[in-house]
């Protein structure tokens, strides 16, 4: 039994004349918990940003990998990094704003509104990451088929043997399956990390709705 449950249990034991004091105590507890949850959402997003910076530095040390995704006009790794950083920084800023709003003193109605806004922001963030990852896989596949020497050699050999169309169909299916598996993994990963926090945040929302009534 957590601190909120203990407060509610104590609230029920008191006389009706003390209900207002107890409601205020419960609100303070819900406010504190909601602020803490949103702070953790912000912290996790910052850690994720640091992780991607570290990963990009490791990728740049692989000369073969960087050569495949680099042409005279485009460097896919650099472009994908910039877009990824922009997405992460935008959502970190939004998460920070949500934290500032929830952390500030506000009415029950305003706190409920900000909780729902935070929940929606996290859901949009997960969808954007999934969509961007799918686009990234498609672009990476195009680069592989156009600039990977080993894959180009294999393609020409298959083309000469008359199985070009079959090779293209199998390749497309492979890319689609890869996108599906990657999306499923990322969805599960983000649901595990952010889902637990959102579940706790929504529980606070339900308790606040009872106070509002």
TrEMBL record:
The chain crosses the membrane at residues 37-57, 77-96, 124-146, 166-190. It comes from the Bacteria. This is Beta-carotene 15,15'-monooxygenase. Keywords: Membrane, Transmembrane, Transmembrane helix.
